[in-house]
Amino acid sequence: MSIEKGTLQIRNLSKSFTVDGNALQVLNNINLTFPAGSFISIVGSSGCGKTTLLRILLGLETNYEGDALLDGERIEGPGTNRGIVFQDHRLLPWLTVGENVAFGLDKQNRKAKKKIVDEHLKLVGLSGFESAYPAQLSGGMAQRVAIARALANKPEILLLDEPLGALDALTRMHMQKELERLWLLEKITMVMVTHDVDEAIYLSDIVVIMSSRPGIIKQIIKVPFPRPRDRASSEFSHIKAEILKEFHLGTEYPFAYAI
Amino acid sequence: MIKNSLKKLELKDKLLALIVPLLLLAAWQSAVSLELCSPLLLIPPLTLLDTLLYLADSGELTINIIASLNRVLVGFLIGGLSGFLLGLFMGLSPFLDRFAGPLIKASKQVPQFALMPLIILWFGVDELAKYVFIAIGAFYPMVFNTYQGVSTVSKRYRELARVFDYRGARFLTKVILPSAMPSIITGVRHSLGLSWMFVVGAEIFGADTGLGYMMAAARNMFQIDIVMAGLVVIGAIGFSINFILQVIEKRLLVWRFSSDQGASK
Amino acid sequence: MKRTEKIKIKLIGIALPILLLILWQYVVSAGFVSHHILPLPGQVLTTLVRLFTEEKLILHIAISLRRVIYGLLIGTASGFLFGLLMGLSRTAEKIFAPTFHTVRQVPLIGWIPLIVMWFGMNELPRILIVAIGAFYPTTLNTFSGVRDVPRRYKELAAVYGYKGFKLIRRVILPSAFPSIITGFTLSLGMSWVLLIAAELLIETIAGIGKLIDVGRDTFNMELVVAGILISGLLGFTMTKIVEKLVQAVQKGRVFEQEL
Question: Which of residues 49-88 of B touch C (CB under 8 A)?
């Protein structure tokens, strides 16, 4: 049986770091399967290892136990079949917007490159900005460019590490809509790490809740509502309450501190 | 209207900037006119201008300027380039940093003019000795600033390069060098500034051409006019070098100087 | 970091000097280079020991130090006041800064012939050259430190009615302090370089620069190399003393990192 492109399987995955000679377990026996084309959020308080998990999927952390499989193959390093959007937009300030979007497109001719850049800037609504420098953009615009850069390589999955965490609340809600639009358009797997429960419910098919020290999976919640979702609906609040309940039980601090 | 008042403001700034030079000039002229000091020690401003024109006309100035600039160019290229390469490799390789870094830092403690007698004993009094001396002056700012720029390239950018599989020359030219460029340019500026100072020092110490030589010879013959003219010329050249570098810097670092005008659109 | 790791780093650092020392000894004793051109390390050491047991060296050092200290005091004190003035008043900046930045382009050594003609061949021109060298870095760094005091501190001071001398002493100077110290350290380095230059270029009877020059005149290579080492050692000692002083002053004061 062949595996559909964009399928992620995580089996018995554990990861520990050595700090001052002591082993610190960050992830403990993680098992997850993400069907191709789904939108997954990983929520949890600081230090639960969700970013480490994302970095393993990205290939920046290679020394881990168990398996993280993309399309059935073990992830051993970075590759262009996975795109990433970091919390900081991480655009190179010395490259123009266009050059930043083209950053991952090396083995192609100038014309083909330009076409891809134009397409993707249009996709994120920034046509005409290709010769601007990152310093000239607002936070929301910079993050759109970062998303365009990640999508320009046509990845099978897009990893999002708190992609909207640095934006103000209104820009953030707007960008959530944008992400949903892009996901529906591109039909690829997206895995997002976030602190924001509303954001997770609004965007995801599956919400994975993690708890800390060592990071384990506490609960996997499916969000079956049709899109676009209404943040004010009763079903939305119902699921939110269900997720928040998990946090109250898991941490010794009130939830407010864990945001 | 706003543009107009801005222009007025700029004009006012320019006038303010002229106060000190004009006062100095007035003090200078009156000191000469009132014979407050010996004409052997201070010539009138206009005589200085005459001297400059005379030196330029006789060709003496051109010969000396070319001699000095030639030494600076060769010395700076040798010292600056080797400083750049060493700084780059030290920034890229922690081992090389630990291996060569301490010695370079320790040797920096020697005031470089102390090396001049040794360099003359080793390389004689001709051009080679001057090149070596200037190269040593140019070396240190370049090695330290390049190292600083390369070793502090943000981990965030290094990670990004890994994700997009940037390696070798591509990693160097697209990520490391642009990121280190502001620091490298600072190095070039300091390096050239010191080269210019060292050439004058080397020429005062012993040479038969160059602006430093011209001033030292004039001092020995008590020709204050030529000493002052020399000072003006080396200052003007120093100013020009700095100006050219600023233009180049603005060109190379356009991404740094661009403001956030785009965001307000 | 672990202790063994630190020791290892130190060992790597002294490997190169030791290798060079061995190479030096080898090329001279094997006859590749005459010891008249390059004295043996042992010869230099003997000369150093002999110098340090003679009163004359102390005299040379004392005279050089006196010149540096006077020049440094004059240069940094006037540089501090001038930089403060330009940093505090925009008008003063507009009046003085253009002339200052223009005159600054004259390479410092270039002043030597003029100053010697004006003040003769005595101590004054040497001290003046050192003072000019010390003047620029302190002026520049005091100026930028004072001008760039963060606006939020100035606003806070205004809210609490700080004015005049109190404002300068309690807000401006503490905020500009790190920058002023940087300027002073740079001044120290520059003044030591210029002192040696002045002692070589302006006839004198004593001083470390003179000691080296005597070595050159008499073709006494050991003396030249020993003199260079002493000048480096003195420069190093002075830098260390200033570093310790700065640490003592800064002790207990943690400065906020400006972004």
Answer: none
Helices B224-252 & B211-220 angle (0-180, nearest 10): 160
Written as six digits, the tokens of B203 are 């020429």
pTM here?
A: 0.85
* Chain A residues within an 8 Å CB radius of B254: 133
* Pairs from C214-222 (Cβ < 8 Å, separation ≥ 24): C215/B117, C216/B117, C216/B118, C216/B120, C216/B121, C219/B121, C219/C36, C221/B121, C221/C35, C221/C36, C221/C37, C221/C38, C221/C39, C222/C39, C222/C43, C222/C44, C222/C46, C222/C47
In a domain, C175, yes or no: yes
What's the one-letter identity of residue A41?
S
* Chains contacting A (3+ CB pairs below 8 angstroms): B
Domain locations in chain A as residue ranges: 1-77+189-259
The CATH number given to A1-77+189-259 is: 3.40.50.300
* Domain count along chain C: 1
Residue C6 in domain? no
Specify the DSSP element, H or E, that contains A40: strand A39-43
A81's tokens: 């079949």
* Cβ contact, residue pair A135, B258, below 8 Å: yes
The shortest CB-CB distance from B204 to any of C96, C109, C192 is to C109
Residue C77: CATH number of its domain: 1.10.3720.10
By three-state DSSP, how is residue A81 classified? coil
pLDDT in tens, A19-54: 777 788 888 888 888 888 899 999 987 777 888 889
> Which residues 4-43 of C have a C-beta within 8 angstroms of B?
9, 12-17, 20, 37
Range of the domain at C55: 39-250
Would residue C79 count as lying in a domain?
A: yes
With an 8 Å Cβ cutoff, is C77 touching chain B? no
The pLDDT tens digits for C140-176 are 999 999 999 988 888 888 888 788 888 888 889 988 9
**Domains in chain B with CATH codes:** 43-253 (1.10.3720.10)
For residue C37, the model assigns a pLDDT of 83
User: Rounded to a whole number, what is the distance in Å from the CA of C214 to chain B's nearest CA?
Assistant: 9
Q: Which of B61, B104, A60, B43 is nearest to C114 (CA)?
A: B43
d(CA B119, CA A132): 51
Residues A159 and A54: beta-carbon distance below 8 Å: yes
Please choose, from the candidates B105, A247, B26, B81, the residue with its C-alpha nearest in 3D space to the C-alpha of residue C189: B105
Alpha helices in chain C (DSSP H): 3-29, 41-53, 55-88, 90-103, 111-119, 123-147, 151-159, 164-167, 173-201, 208-217, 221-250
Asked whether residue C25 is assigned to any structural domain, the reply reads no
Q: Judged by CB atoms within 8 Å, which residues 122-161 of B form the interface with C?
A: 122
